[in-house]
Amino acid sequence: MKVELGISTFGETTPLEKTGEAISHDERIRDLLEEITLADKLGIDVYTIGKHHRKDFAVSAPEIVLAMAAAQTKQIHLSSATTNLPTIDPIRVYEQYATIDTAAPGRIEIMAGRGSFTEAFDLFGYDLENYDELFKEKLEMLVKINQHEILNWPGGKFTPKVDHTGIYPRSQKPLPIS
Questions:
Q1: pTM score
Q2: Edge-to-edge strand ranges of the sheet holding 77-80
Q3: pLDDT at residue 171 above 80?
Q4: Whether pLDDT at 116 is above 80
Q5: 3-state SS of the chain?
């Protein structure tokens, strides 16, 4: 069994202990890119970036930061931590991560989750009462998209019907979804 060493962040911008000041969102994102590039050079196995939609976190779109990092790195695996499926469209999730995979083939992973904070539910018009159902349905759809280029999806309570439609771009291999 191989042990992997990784770093995980949500791009926190909480006040620093020494100064009591928080760094700006743009500075934090630039710092994340430098950290990922250095981690790649040092041989760290994986770097994961989570997301929040709050002032104390800089990253609300980890797939964009991961795409920038993919273009600057050679070997490190890159993943979300987590992709909060209840409040995002599974087709867009797949398309975004498959696009990143073109810059970093075989180094991209989707960590699908529910989210431990719930600010995105109100922000994107979802009812927190549907927390479990949203996750289950959207995860099933994401897995099917990952396995099949042409999507036939019956639709559900939270996802639209999709009849024999190609989802592009495609990753070279199915993306790891954990």
A1: 0.93
A2: 6-9, 46-49, 77-80, 108-109
A3: yes
A4: no
A5: CCCCCEEEECCECCCCCCCCCCCCHHHHHHHHHHHHHHHHHHCCCEEEECCCCCCCECCCCHHHHHHHHHHHCCCCEEEECCEEHHHCCHHHHHHHHHHHHHHCCCCEEECEECCCCCHHHHHCCCCHHHHHHHHHHHHHHHHHHHHCCEEEECCCCCCCCEEEEECCCCCCCCCCEC
φ and ψ at 174, to 5 degrees? -55, 140
Nearest to 100 by CA among 159, 43, 36, 150: 36
Q: CA triplet 124, 81, 126: central angle to 5 degrees?
A: 15
d(CA 39, CA 47): 8
Alpha-carbon distance of 119 to 124, in angstroms, equals 9
Tokens 């990092």 belong to: 69
Nearby residues of 162 by Cβ (< 8 Å), 6 or more positions away: 91, 151, 152, 153, 155
Beta-bridged to residue 165, according to DSSP, are: 151
Distance CA 48, CA 120 (A): 20
pLDDT of residue 12: 95
CB 47 within 8 A of CB 6: yes
